Amino acid sequence: MKEELGILIKAQYPLIHLVTPEEERAEAEISRIASNSKEHRKRIYVWTVTHGIVEYDQPRQVTQHNTVSPESALEWVVRQKESAIYIFKDLHPFLDGAVVTRWLRDAIASFKGTDKLIILMSPILQVPIELEKEVVVLDYPLPDLQELNQVLSSQLQRSRGQRLETEAREKLLKAALGLTKDEAEKVYRKAYLKSNQLSESEVDIVLSEKKQLIRRNGILDYIEEDETLNSIGGLEELKLWLRQRSNAFTERAREYGLPQPKGMLILGVPGCGKSLIAKTTSRLWGLPLLRLDMGRVYDGSMVGRSEANLRNALKTAESISPVILFIDELDKAFAGGAGSGDSDGGTSSRIFGSFLTWMQEKTSPVFVMATANRVERLPGEFLRKGRFDEIFFVDLPTLAERQDIFRIHLGKRRPETTRFDLEQLAKVSDGFSGAEIEQAIIAAMYDAFAQDREFTQLDIIAAIKSTLPLSRTMTEQVSALRDWARQRARPASASVAEYQRLEF
Length: 504
Ligand code: ATP
Description:
The chain contains 22 helices and 13 strands. With 504 residues, it is an alpha/beta fold.
């Protein structure tokens, strides 16, 4: 992406929109590009609404005559003869007005045959429709390992010239991926100050700082899960699929000629372990798990804000890759995204479009793990072949699976489970989801606890009998989902025949 910026500048694209929160870093890169090639050596001017136009990196920051207002700044730019790059920082709020947009268009038109160009720089992407055809948008990437290495090296120099083993260095660098340069500087400094050294033992400090910073952006969550695949009952097909891909993101898999897995969609009845599967995969594959909260992506406070949120979140996920990006309830997140969207000025359609494009074009190892309960609300584009590597359907657990789920959940709460007749429990809980089985055990425990005694088989049966499972309250929805999934999705459970026989 950085190379692309250089190419666009050299190719004299008149208007580039560089989306980044890292102004200083991006300016330094533009300056490097501008001074690198002799024939394209250009001066750089920077406009802000606070200072007007000043020349970049000059010791005395003199404002060019009367250029604080965007109109006068653009007029000044048009009048200049010399070859130059004009960076406009945060011009987007002014592009709401027709006059500034018109000035900008006039300026670009006047650049023909000159060696001038404008770079709009802001943390969010916001382009008025009049400029859509004239602007090239570039997302400035977060620092890569090489840049982070420079940051780490300067911190080490300040830390009494401390030396680092290659392996420890690599771990410290990887731990900071996904941070801006400023954030990485702060995190390394803090880690150093905490333990008076920077070594492999500080990797955890860097990671936990990174988790906090990622959480602060409010859209991505770092999820840590202690459970393993063993705490999921049944779903053997799905587990096998995941186990076979445990090393799918390694160099060895690439050398073998395997493509990088793109993602999977888990459709299913509520409470049957879809989210749990997604979370435990992170442990199985040894990859970090980020949850993308689509509800928080939508932000009506400003036009373009939602799109910017999504872009930033995806950019962060890519910079941490290989990573698993977990999107729970994809059906809710993108309901109506494919067509309607009128109610919110088309934001949901645009968000949906950007997400699909990203999924299609992404080259970095970000594995999308999405779950959905309601297939009729899911835009059809997600279900098309090739979008996900596989679409699994998680049905209500079979008899054997329910037995397994009872064993797991009772085993979590009591070391000794032989006093329970798991087969009987599984039989009486026909039509129950994993979540409902867990709840029945908890209800039984509460009952017994209130009577100051240990809970028994009969308490669990009583709890089961007094529960009306979702499969009965939502019979129609569940059967519709099953009918749909039988044709088009792969069953997550080993015994297809058994699940097909299942009736309630
Ligand atoms: P929803 O669609 O409502 O989000 P879900 O299918 O994602 O539901 P989970 O949130 O993963 O379901 O399940 C809720 C809880 O139920 C899990 O944390 C787990 O304790 C229990 N559970 C569900 N299915 C299973 C299972 N197959 N094995 C063990 N526990 C299960």
